[in-house]
Amino acid sequence: xxxxxxxxxxxxxxxxxxxxxxxxxxxxxxxxxxxxxxxxxxxxxxxxxxxxxxxxxxxxxxxxxxxxxxxxxxxxxxxxxxxxxxxxxxxxxxxxxxxxxxx
Amino acid sequence: xxxxxxxxxxxxxxxxxxxxxxxxxxxxxxxxxxxxxxxxxxxxxxxxxxxxxxxxxxxxxxxxxxxxxxxxxxxxxxxxxxxxxxxxxxxxxxxxxxxxxxxxxxxxxxxxxxxxxxxxxxxxxxxxxxxxxxxxxxxxxxxxxxxxxxxxxxxxxxxxxxxxxxxxxxxxxxxxxxxxxxxxxxxxxxxxxxxxxxxxxxxxxxxxxxxxxxxxxxxxxxxxxxxxxxxxxxxxxxxxxxxxxxxxxxxxxxxxxxxxxxxxxxxxxxxxxxxxxxxxxxxxxxxxxxxxxxxxxxxxxxxxxxxxxxxx
Lengths: 103, 312
Fold this sequence. Notes:
The structure holds 2 protein chains of 2 kinds.
Chain A: E1 5-15, H1 19-28, E2 35-39, E3 41-43, E4 46-48, E5 57-64, H2 66-79, E6 86-95
Antiparallel strand pairs in A: 1-5, 1-6, 2-5, 3-4
Chain B: H1 4-16, H2 25-47, H3 52-80, H4 85-96, H5 100-112, H6 122-129, H7 131-142, H8 151-160, H9 162-182, H10 186-191, H11 193-211, H12 215-218, H13 220-243, H14 248-259, H15 265-273, H16 279-309
Helix pairs in contact in B: 1-11, 2-9, 2-11, 3-4, 3-6, 3-7, 3-13, 4-7, 4-16, 5-11, 5-14, 5-16, 6-9, 11-16, 13-14, 13-16, 14-16
Transmembrane segments (chain B): 55-77, 89-107, 119-142, 154-176, 188-209, 221-246, 252-274, 281-302
InterPro entries (chain B): Sbt_1
Protein name (chain B): Sodium-dependent bicarbonate transport family permease
């Protein structure tokens, strides 16, 4: 599509307990914003039904430039991977109005 | 037989039988908000009638109780159970904190038997929620890897977590408005209370049975601890209740609070403050074993213990 611009989509699926800390971290690392949704599913740490407090998971999506995506993934890897159940991946996407997401 | 625990059993059995019964997550959230507010309001309303000079020393003793219980639980888990320090400390913190629903079931137990109790006891529920968690975190941090604790976010989590805000907020509203001010809210908060508690217990049954599989991997020691520790805590709570001059009914509530383990506030705080602790262990102990034990067998047992202590 001619009117889209390349951008990185960072997706972090994590325990709900991390929503606050993650939100703070990604903004400090240069993201312009993020979207969070409640999710449920199954992975190497077992299944998460999302039915009650300690069993909730979230999916956080951040649209940003390549440098920020690298900073976020490095940070998440270093700070959270060891002790928390989480999945992180980065995708190349095309966005409209790129000035909303990249520096 | 009280009807309320049966709802827990219904949920538990339904999940074990793989029924598709499921309460919407938002309903669970709404029910817990309702329960916390209602309990806070009721306690606050009664607190307004009390002499602060009489309640203050009791409140301080109850805070101390919240510190003692995790200090008793920790060596049992760490030395006898041979858990890692962070796991032992996190589990101890869960047992130092309290379960609101267990408290509500105990209140229902007393009401059904027309046993009088100090109706301001929800104040103690508020006071007991926090110290156990703080002691658990300190115990986790005392050994070996001394990492500085970030108290700011942690205190925020503890004091401004939803259960604390709703309980303490309800308590304050009830205290400020008094029985007259709350009278128009009676039908909603007090008459409907039992029905809501039943729905919540149905959900707790579903959740507990859903987690029950973790018992297989968590080891026999934890299961024994999750039954033995509440009884030990109830004994300590009974002694505390007698010491501070509560009635037999009030002492039963305090013993039940002491015996209960948190599965909402403590897991959230521990996950942030002690990330290396395995949350599965605490949840299995507190929710899968101790919670059902307390509401089905524990409360009648503690009633006996209190009866013996009070020569009844």
